[in-house]
Amino acid sequence: MFQAGLKQPSAGAQWTGITTKIAEKLLVSGKVDAVLTMTADPNDRWRPVPTLVTNVDDLAACRGMRMGYAPLLSLVEPAIAVGLKRLAIIGIPCQVYALRALQDEMGIEQLYVIGTPCSDNTTTERFHEFLALLCEQPETCTYLEFRADYHVEMRFQNGEIKTIPFLKLPLSQLPRDFFPLTCQTCVDYTNVLADITVGYMAGRGEQWLLVRNARGQEMLDLLGEEISLKTPSSAGNRAGPVKGFLKNTERAAGGLPLRAMPDWARPIAAYLMPRIGPRGLEFARARLEMKAVETVLHLRRVKPRRMRHMIPDHVWRLVESYGLKPEEGER
User: Fold this and answer.
1) Maximal C-alpha separation, the chain
2) Between 271 and 31, where is the model more confident?
3) What phi and psi values does residue 188 have, to the nearest 5 degrees?
4) Residue 200: what pLDDT?
5) Orientation of helix 281-302 relative to helix 313-320, angle to 10°
6) Cα(53)–Cα(42) distance, rounded to whole angstroms?
7) Closest CA to 116 of 37, 228, 35
8) SS3 for 105?
9) Are 258 and 307 a contacting pair, CB within 8 Å?
10) pLDDT, tens digit (0-9, with 9 covering 90-100), for 62-88
């Protein structure tokens, strides 16, 4: 596990561009025939479209975050049909889960899996509604990122950069089903089935790398001296924020967790959280425990009969210290 950053960040990348750089190295070295990832719809920069990249120069168009649903794995069989059997695939946890379940029967000869953590998803249309709440001209926004310092960063066509504290986000104006139940009950935020996970949650302004196996280490080694690696740090205490999230989620009764904090206190909290709140690994642990809490509460409310099949043991261990324990028939 590392806190990492490219020494020369790639222009237009979401962070420093580690994910794209690994994909580039895999293609240039000849380890793969193609990279399967997402690019932007030509009519909507935020809408993801699956793409099969065989030319390194085409990877630049795949940089950045997309919001919405897209059938990434639909291109695996067409790739194999034309002889592209050595693949690198960049995906979020639910895509990687499906890939691992199918890979042995798909005729893939060589497979490198680069995973990114997923902090919930929604439709592209709903995401546009969210953007419209954040700025007056959402069509000019070219970049949006939820950062580990409790701020959302937005960039615009004119070069302007805007940051918004999490506590000031207009969550109360979003519809109750903004995030689908499948995201609200996700138990794999960190993409554990990937060979290497490239994310942000413990990055402290850089990126967070989790090398999961020898193939993941092989991909990291391809970056050589181009990447800076350090041991992740940790600060603050997650217990209070996670307990607060639990109470807010219970209060929301299935909708988005709304903070009960009065408006006058929000600027104070927004100032303090990046300084005294969970940071680094503690921030990552807080997010994982919040997702575990959310999983239990939402399934208990909406699909109680599915709990014993949808909640793995590690999730129950994560929520136990917050007073959530399986009831009869839930485990």
Assistant:
1) 61
2) 31
3) -140, 65
4) 86
5) 110
6) 16
7) 37
8) helix
9) no
10) 988 899 999 999 999 999 999 999 999
- Dihedrals φ, ψ of 100, to 5°? -65, -35
pLDDT attached to residue 260: 53
Tokens for 49, please give them. Answer: 């479209």
At 206, list the tokens. 């850089």
49: left (phi over 0), alpha (psi -120 to 50) or beta: beta
Please state, in angstroms and rounded to a whole number, the distance separating the CA atoms of residues 311 and 292.
9
- Rounded distance between C-alpha atoms, residue 117 and residue 90, angstroms: 11
Per-residue pLDDT, 259: 54
Helix 281-302 vs helix 239-252: angle between axes, to the nearest 10 degrees? 20
* Mean pLDDT across 206-216: 96
What single DSSP character describes residue 213? S
Sheet holding 110-115, edge to edge: 44-53, 34-41, 86-91, 110-115, 196-199, 207-211, 2-6, 227-230
Tokens of 314: 């590690």
Q: Is the pTM of this model over 0.85?
A: yes
pLDDT exceeds 60 at position 261: no
Cα–Cα distance list, 279 to 27, 233, 235, 270, 289 (Å): 35, 8, 5, 14, 14
C-alpha of 13 from chain center: 15
Question: CA 268 to CA 265: how far, in whole Å?
Answer: 5
Q: How far is CA 164 from CA 146, 158, 161, 266, 267, in A?
A: 9, 18, 10, 12, 11
